[in-house]
Design a protein that fits this description.
211 residues; alpha+beta; FAD/NAD(P)-binding domain; Enolase-like, domain 1; 2 domains; 5-stranded antiparallel sheet; redox-active center; flavoprotein; FAD/NAD-binding_dom; glutathione-disulfide reductase (NADPH) activity; disulfide bond
């Protein structure tokens, strides 16, 4: 049983209405612009209280550091709320970075994207004979931006470790060509991202028959 209850935004009794700060009446969260500024110019909000942003501690820490540097250190760097490596630590881990396929289609249009995907069989699953078509890898590429990777998704063992490594590459503008030019470490789960050649649009079979 997976219980994901989330967090409650306790904003209704701290005096925000006194100074005119808007909140989302449905969830109590605070809408902000891309600099974490509320509708009241001298009031900022960061972390889980933000409306429509990720409820992740590392995101709040990063946003807080960058906000302090903009306010008092002369910086102009804003927090990137898109390319955030995230993992669900279920028994079979799921990791992602960037956009979900549905969100990417909404933002770029289906015709402008190429989605590569593959099932894979982790080495440690071969001896006990576990299902060789349970783990899954997918990247979403923007065809009109040099096939830049805008979405990264992996379902398999140690997905968190895999995603953390690829997240740095995505921040650097990772493309499908760069992935293809990267030599994989055999036999690892992450290797699958260096050999992907089947697109969803092709309709080809992605089932695996060996490791």
């Amino acid at each position: 049983v997976l219980i994901a209850i989330g967090r409650d935004a306790c904003t209704r009794n701290i005096g925000l209405e006194t100074i005119g700060v808007n909140i989302n009446e449905k969830n109590g969260k605070v809408p902000v612009n891309d600099e974490e500024q509320t509708n009241v110019p001298y009031v900022y909000a960061i972390g889980d209280i933000l409306d429509g942003k990720l409820e992740l501690t590392p995101v709040a820490i990063q946003a807080g550091k960058l906000l302090a540097r903009r306010l008092y250190g002369g910086s102009s760097i804003k927090c990137d709320y898109i390319n955030v490596p995230t993992t669900v630590f279920t028994p079979l881990e799921y990791g992602c970075c960037g956009l979900a396929e549905e969100k990417a289609i909404e933002e770029y249009g289906k015709q402008n994207l190429e989605v590569y995907h593959s099932l894979f069989w982790p080495l440690e699953w071969t001896v006990p004979g576990r299902d060789n078509n349970t783990c899954y890898a997918k990247i979403i590429c923007n065809k009109h931006d040099n096939n830049r990777v805008v979405g990264f998704h992996v379902l398999g063992p140690n997905a968190g470790e895999v995603t953390q490594g690829f997240a740095a590459a995505i921040k650097c503008g990772l493309t499908k060509e760069l992935l293809d030019e990267t030599i994989g470490i055999h036999p690892t789960c992450a290797e699958v991202f260096t050999t992907m050649d089947i697109t969803k649009a092709s309709g080809q079979d992605i089932t695996q028959r060996g490791c």
